[in-house]
Amino acid sequence: MAKIKTKDKILSVAIRMFNESGIQGVTSRHIAAEMGISHGNLDYHYHTKEDLLLAIYDKMRAEASEAYTIRESNISSLMHFQRMVAGLEEFQYRYRFFNLDVLEISRSFPEVNKKIQETLILRKQQAQQLFEEFLKDGYVSFPDEDVMERIQHTIRIVITFWLSQLEVISPYKFRQKGEMVRLVWNTILPYLTPAGKEEYDRIQESAPSELTN
């Protein structure tokens, strides 16, 4: 088995500790102590906390990009959308700290914020391409371009702040696994054409676990 590089070990331990204690509750010295290495050793690989967060964010962006771009050739655009959103919900929990502290991270670490903004532009373009595919496939119909853009924006808000709203709006019952996926679908369901509703029902009937797992 290939030996895990120290840099990769640091990332793995940092993600776990950030998830457990939050971005402000963990310092590089805490991470070094947890790993049983010197602070100087950790500092050699990541000079600052922002360097460490940049490396984590690069890892996050690569993983999230797979959800958007990797697609089986024989599935519909709606099924790809379902799997993409389900993958992004799982992604939220793998990097819990980042999604809970995204506002603080954006304000405190300008280089990370720059990468976040670049990624959001890319995701907006990818979402637009996918919605155009929905239209081409005859699965959706929107009154105008503005409505379609607002739905895309609503979906981005839901995905970005899903974990934060679970923390803040705690009395609400929609908390179990799969609820983010359901909420995203609810923004699109009113605009499905008969063909789109048929495909949506087919997804439910042929693979009900797709909508909850």
UniProtKB/TrEMBL annotation:
<feature type="domain" description="HTH tetR-type">
    <location>
        <begin position="4"/>
        <end position="64"/>
    </location>
</feature>
<dbReference type="InterPro" id="IPR001647">
    <property type="entry name" value="HTH_TetR"/>
</dbReference>
<dbReference type="InterPro" id="IPR009057">
    <property type="entry name" value="Homeodomain-like_sf"/>
</dbReference>
<dbReference type="Pfam" id="PF00440">
    <property type="entry name" value="TetR_N"/>
</dbReference>
<keyword id="KW-0238">DNA-binding</keyword>
<dbReference type="InterPro" id="IPR050624">
    <property type="entry name" value="HTH-type_Tx_Regulator"/>
</dbReference>
<dbReference type="Pfam" id="PF13972">
    <property type="entry name" value="TetR"/>
</dbReference>
<protein>
    <submittedName>
        <fullName>TetR/AcrR family transcriptional regulator</fullName>
    </submittedName>
</protein>
<dbReference type="InterPro" id="IPR025722">
    <property type="entry name" value="TetR"/>
</dbReference>
<feature type="DNA-binding region" description="H-T-H motif">
    <location>
        <begin position="27"/>
        <end position="46"/>
    </location>
</feature>
